[in-house]
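Sample entry follows:

_____
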Amino acid sequence: MELRQLRYFVAIADSGSFTKAAERVYVAQSALSHQLAQLEDELGTPLFDRSRRGVELTEAGQRFFPHAVSILRQAEEALASARSTDEEPEGKVVFGIPHSASNALALPLLREVRQRLPKVTLELTEELTGNLTRQLRTGQIQLAVLFEDGQLGGFSVTRVLSEQLHLIEPEDASPTPAKGRPPVRPLSLRQALSRPLILPASPHGVRPIIEAAAAMAGLPPPRVEADISSISILRTTLLAGMGRTLLPVMPLLPEIQAGLLRVTPVTRLDRTLAVCSSAQIPRSPACQAVAELAVALMQRLSSSGEWSGSRPLTAAKAHD
């Protein structure tokens, strides 16, 4: 098995076509097909189903794909590590951010890396937390912001900040202006869980955190009336008056500030955000530099109030 065979395989999978893949990797289509045939012979199974519409991964190809991506990225990272210095790291770093944290972190992180790490290429990917966890384990991404929910075994974990969860629901048509209302009293966990909720599908987002908090308090699990794992769809649903959710304020801050959504803090319910990497795959100088920069940036955003509803934690690193 050769790295070029893996590159050709990934190019075909991404392109859905031998012709487009050959153009992408700058080889003749006959050479590409020959190398893929050798790879399939070595693996003892076809990796693609071929038809007039193009090519699709077989079940074996789907299982093989994340490993191929991981191997190629680790090879690139090893090459970049050899060329890097601690003073001037270089290379590509793939950083995963959950949907509910991207509007707080993505743009500031991109700006910070461009300014302070000019030889590092940062690729940001926005995903559900369950997908980020899987991609981090297989090496498809090098760093990710994850929630500390008891499922971070096998990762190097740096706890960075905590966010309180709020009950977020459509603003009612009360004639009393929001500024003239009495201060909002926090809800107990029992009160919050007694309401029907819209939550991400398990095991994504805050769902495991809420279920674990309920179990620890001896309460029934949340009453989920709809599973919505997309922040944009959730926003539309809430604005249409079709339910309520439990989330930190930051993902829906513009709508909250505009008075379109009402928030009520919930006691004893928060989530901890951590910068994570694989404990088995060494960090390159570029990866280490981005991780340190992300931790400092997140704490600064929290301390300054720019990351609304959060509080910084003492960044304690743990290898699980």
